[in-house]
Amino acid sequence: MNELLVVNNLEKTFMMHHFNEKKIVGCKGISFSLDKGEFIGITGKSGAGKSTVLKSIYRTYIPTGGEMIYHSDLFGPIDLVQATEREMLTIRKAEIGYVSQFLNVMPRVTAIEVVAEALVEMGEETKKATEKAKEILQHFKLPETLWTSFPRTFSGGEKLRLNLAQAMIKKPKLLLLDEPTASLDNASKEAVKEMIIELKANGTSMIGIFHDIDFMETVVDRQYHLQDGILNEKVNLSS
């Protein structure tokens, strides 16, 4: 079996308790499969539910329907819809990474500590983790003068590069990318592309949301478009 993740009829409905229990459908009927080492790109208009799909897989949003069978190294086949919070925390720490444009870190932790800690959590010795953190921060062209600074002072592009470094240094089994090239210049985009290619070569599977179609088409294997709650495969780019 080559499938890493199989999503069947995923649904996420938000209950607006302050508006007479109004329900808002974030996504529904989402079905697709992701093979090991494959990269799927998802496009669609703002508000179509793309980020909802990724956050449901990562379980920062708790799905309200469907199933997501993920083939975990730690737990074997596990339904991420039904997984416990403890199971999800363990899987996130060791197997699934998430990159967004927004940075959520402790207020008085430096950039290099943010990246190194991702490896320390996985059992890496602190000194070695710090050396690897330096290498990946250089790769993503985050100025060395910022390494010992607090990320809350960073620009949007700098925060995104730090997010990419923090997630990719772990070489996760599954990596979820929410607009991974937003706010980046061409040189930084090339660094992202190089790291994506390296991760794919080492077996990482990825799902990414993109507005930068030109960039997406250089890295993904399959492309889906999300519209009106329906996810349709557009073209097989690897054929």
Automatic annotation (TrEMBL):
Q: Which UniProt keywords apply?
A: ATP-binding, Lyase, Nucleotide-binding
InterPro entries (UniProt xref): AAA+_ATPase (IPR003593), ABC_transporter-like_ATP-bd (IPR003439), CP_lyase_PhnL (IPR012701), P-loop_NTPase (IPR027417)
Q: Which Gene3D superfamilies match?
A: P-loop containing nucleotide triphosphate hydrolases
- List the molecular function annotations (GO) for this entry: lyase activity
Residue span(s) of domain ABC transporter = 5-237
State the Pfam families in the record: ABC_tran
Cited PANTHER family: ALPHA-D-RIBOSE 1-METHYLPHOSPHONATE 5-TRIPHOSPHATE SYNTHASE SUBUNIT PHNL, LIPOPROTEIN-RELEASING SYSTEM ATP-BINDING PROTEIN LOLD
Q: Which NCBIfam families match?
A: CP_lyasePhnL
Q: Which family does it belong to?
A: Belongs to the ABC transporter superfamily.
* Protein name per the record: Phosphonate C-P lyase system protein PhnL
Q: Which organism is it from?
A: Alkalihalobacterium chitinilyticum
Identify the coding gene. phnL
